[in-house]
Here is the input.
Amino acid sequence: MGWLEDTLFVDQAVCYQDSSKLNSLEGKFDFVLDCGAYDQTFRSHSEIVADSLRFLKPLSKSVYVTLSPPILANTDKYGIFIGSATTALEAAYDTYRGLRDFNSARWAVFLPNKRALDYVARLLEDEAITPQVDSIHSFSSMPSAYEQLQSGKAKGKVVVDVTKLDLDQLALDSNNDKSESVVESPA
Here is the structure.
């Protein structure tokens, strides 16, 4: 994984599937950035945070940040009111668990930022970064794109190309769908 260390300027990148190496790293980090997408796992947010906090140096003001907070998952699962309350309780509990060892557990939530997006666009144009694309699907093959995404086997982004979308055909298809679903009552 040397390419990852060179690209991100980190001391060491570790494959999360190598449990022997992971166990040897407990309590050794000042900062853990959790970029995992946990929709496909059967682990709870609480289990993931607990597992990640063990890698921070104890009593050192180390920081754990997750890019996958349970905000949307809780809202989808429990609705807006109970989901929001559940999220608030999980945030308080994560904070408590971090502070217990004089560390910090935080959630990162992002909003679109034009300057940042322009900067990323320039990096793409200059080929300083390269997106990892698994597959590109036409709009009409969106169901297969969704299946690919849900399989959990995509090695990069699954892209739906809407640049060649025929809006007239889409409107025609939509009207056909509506006319097929209308049932006329006999007069």
Observations:
- The mean pLDDT is 80.
- The first strand starts at residue 31 and ends at 34.
